[in-house]
Amino acid sequence: MISMEYGTIQHKDTERAWLSQAMAEFEQRKGLPQTLPITARCEDIETLFNNRTQAGRHTELNTSMEDRVVAAGPTLTRAQAAERFHLSMADLNAIADRHGFKFKRGYTTNQTYKEGDAGLVERITALRDVGLNRAQVMKQTGMSYDRFHRLLKDYSIDFPKRSNGGYAGRKAS
Q: Please, which domain of life does this record's source organism belong to (predicted)?
């Protein structure tokens, strides 16, 4: 048995009214489609669909697009290039390998990563002077391996590696 829910019928009535209004407007234009202006997101959008796929098969990149990536590549990070040229990281890496250039490092465009460096450098040197080793300093400060070694390199901190007192450092008895 079919249930007659009044709410569903009312909901369909609003859809029917909208559809009949749209059809009346279409017939007023004598059945001609309406042309709407579109704007592209960037100047490179036309190359997004140019020679990328043909009948479902992947094809090579458009050479003019590759030339633009090569020209702008060293001044952009990979993320910026992917956004500007609408290419995947794999395509960008392939272009960089073929033409022998490297993209700009990501952290160099964002200087906020250096905000807390002064305090961390002081803590590293103080903990080093107390006698902690590198692993203990990283654990004490809660910083990552990469950040710790970046600080050592950028601020020329002398923090010699010590042996851990393991088997290699012991004398045979």
A: Bacteria
